[in-house]
Amino acid sequence: IVHLPGAINSSPLVWVEANDAGSLVQDTSKLIGWLDKSGHNNHLRQRGTNNVSAPSWIADQINTDQDVIRFDGSDDQLELDRVISQDFTVTVVYKTAQSFSGGIDHWYQGAGLLDASISGQANHFGLAMNAGRAYAGVSNGTTDSSLQDATPSNTNNATIVSFKRTQSTGGLGLYVNSVLVDQMQGASTTN
Fold first, then answer.
1. 65 close to 134: Cβ distance less than 8 angstroms
2. C-alpha distances out from residue 69 to 7, 30, 94, 109, 129, Å
3. pTM score, two decimals?
4. Which helix (H) or strand (E) segment is 59 a member of?
C-alpha cells in the first residue's frame, strides 16, 4: 500500500490489524474477537454468542501478502463500545468489488465499514460503501450530514478511507488514499 491515511492521531484510541495473528480471536474460521493494539484495551468482539454473524480471517489477500478480515456484506459484524466523541478521525483500509446500493443520500443507507448509527438516537456517525463509493457522515438527531467520494473505489484494490470531524464547527472531511474528496460544515453535535 503506497498511500498514508490522512489526519491520523499519533496515539489512536483503537488500532486493529489483520496481519497480526496474535491479535485475532478465532472460533474455527470465524473471527469472534479482535484485540486492540493501541494499549487502551478497546477490543472488538462478536455481537451475541452465536458466531454466525462473525467475519472471517483470510490470509494473503492484498498484494499477495496482506491478510484481511472478510465481512460478508450481509450480516457479519464486530462491535466496540463507543470510545470516540468530540473531534475524531477514523480510518479503514478495505478492498472490495461490491456495488451495494441502498440509497444515495446518506452513509447509513450503505454497507457499513465502521458505523456508530443507532436507530432512534442522536449523535451518530459512520463510514460506508454505497453504489461503489465511500460515504461518511454524522447526525445530531435532527440533521443528517453526509459526504461521498465522486469516484468509485470498488475496484478490488486496497483503499484507505479516513473520515475527520471537528465537533465545535461541524467540519467534516472525507479522504480517499490521503486525498480530500469531499468536505462540508455539517451537523454540530454534543458528543
1. no
2. 24, 10, 9, 22, 16
3. 0.79
4. strand 56-62
